[in-house]
Structures are given as structure tokens and as C-alpha cells.
Design goal:
By secondary structure, the chain is mainly β. The protein folds into 2 domains: 3-95, Thrombin, subunit H; 109-231, Beta Barrel (Thrombin, subunit H), CATH 2.40.10. 11% of the residues lie in helices and 45% in strands. The strands form 3 sheets. A 6-stranded antiparallel β-barrel has the order 1-2-3-8-7-6. It has a 6-stranded antiparallel beta barrel with strand order 10-11-12-15-14-13.
């Protein structure tokens, strides 16, 4: 395996179980035989339901992006009041590639809001959801059917998830924002270091959301083509 693909002591990782819930934990120990020790994580005060012989996905991050591998639960260990689990890596890490779809260079204002675990299963396509906390209002650099790039002076970390409110046209041309969750997959800086370019991939996206995004990108692409023909 390449250096980027090797999981090391201290890595912050995500365990993705069969119910698609994501639990965050940290690598506490690594053995010569490929076993990894992590604290059993919890979500909403409830411990992750892990059992011997379970096969789960483990996600970790490098500068080149996100990697996922499959782990098998092989043993549990208690240290004081803390519960730990030994995991055996059984597949080579898979590197999630950057967005491959057509990227539409477009500028629009987007509200980046705090993400709540599982919110992608509940939010409507358009509108508002509870008392969302706005992290910041940013401008996009480009958008595709699978993700968006934003410009910001704020620091973002690989793997962070957010709720995005985007001004895409809704039913009957209403003005309610389009809602979609996204995960940070890429962080780069401008040449002077003042601006961060953040690449986000949509997270937990449904078919309906994909169709709305595809229609938007296609319509804007056609508009750009017509404008270029007019200029030519």
C-alpha cells in the first residue's frame, strides 16, 4: 500500500455501520499483525452497536482526499470505564476520487449551516429546517451534480459535514432555498494564502435532489452555450 493508504496511530476515523450512521473515533493502537484499536464511539449518547465478526466501513482522510476500507470486529477490551474494540483491516483502502462531472463555473451566494447527525434523512428539498445555525455566507466557485466548490477565508477540515442552503429555483418558482448536505473533500489556498477554496461532495443525497441539481446544471450550461454563440 502507498503511504497515504496506511492507517496510523492517532488518526481520526469514521465507522459507518449497516444503518448508515457515522460514528467518529480515533486509532488508539496499531499492531504488527494489522489490528487497530479504537474506543467504541457513541452517537446521541448511545454506543455504536458493534458485535464480533461484524464487517463495517472505516473512513479516514489525507491531503489527497477521503479513503474507505472494510474492517472486521475481532475482539473487545475494557480499560477502566472505557470500552474499546479491536478491528482487522480486510480490504485495501479505496480512494474517493474528486468530482468527475462537468463543473459549472458560476457564482451564487450559499449559506453554510451546521450539520446535525442524520439530518439528510429529514430535510425537505426546499425550505427551512428547525433552527439551523448559519456558519457563514459564501460565494461558490463552481457547481456540479455531485458537489460544489466555495470561496472563503474560514478554515475547513477534511471530513466535516454541513447543511447547505442554495438559491436554486424550486416548485412554482418559489424563493425557498434548496437544501442539501455536503462533506468537505478538498481544501486548497489561493497563491497569496488569503482565500481558501473548499471542495464539497453532496452527502446522503436522494434521487430527487440529484434530478434537481442535474436540471439546474444542464439549464445553466445551455445558457452559457447560447451566450457564447451570441458573442461569436
Amino acid at each position: 500500500m502507498q503511504a497515504d493508504e496506511i492507517i496510523v496511530l492517532g488518526d481520526q476515523v469514521e465507522l459507518i455501520l449497516e444503518d448508515n450512521k457515522t460514528y467518529k473515533t480515533k486509532i488508539e493502537d496499531v499492531t504488527d499483525t494489522g489490528l487497530l484499536l479504537v474506543a467504541v464511539p457513541s452517537l446521541g449518547g448511545i454506543q455504536a452497536p458493534l458485535y464480533i465478526d461484524d464487517r463495517i466501513s472505516l473512513g479516514f482522510y489525507r491531503e489527497s482526499g477521503r479513503y474507505t476500507t472494510t474492517m472486521e470486529v475481532v475482539a473487545f477490551e475494557k480499560q477502566g470505564e472505557a470500552q474499546f474494540v479491536w478491528l482487522l483491516q480486510i480490504t485495501v483502502p479505496f480512494h474517493h476520487q474528486r468530482r468527475g462531472e462537468f463543473r459549472l463555473p458560476t457564482i451564487m451566494d450559499v449559506n453554510v449551516c451546521e450539520y446535525v447527525d442524520g439530518i439528510e434523512k429529514e430535510i425537505p428539498l426546499f425550505g427551512e429546517v428547525g433552527k439551523t445555525v448559519v456558519v457563514e455566507k459564501v460565494s461558490t466557485r463552481d457547481i456540479s451534480v455531485s458537489g460544489v466548490a466555495i470561496k472563503t477565508t474560514r478554515d475547513y477540515e477534511y471530513g466535516e459535514k454541513y447543511l447547505l442552503k442554495m438559491p436554486l429555483e424550486g416548485p412554482q418558482q418559489n424563493t425557498k432555498p434548496f437544501l442539501v448536505c455536503a462533506e468537505v473533500m478538498r481544501v486548497t489556498q489561493s497563491s497569496d494564502g488569503r482565500i481558501n477554496f473548499i471542495g464539497m461532495q453532496y452527502y446522503g443525497i436522494s434521487n430527487n435532489r440529484s434530478e434537481i441539481l442535474a436540471r439546474f446544471v444542464f439549464s445553466q450550461q445551455q445558457q452559457l452555450i447560447r451566450q457564447r454563440r451570441y458573442i461569436d
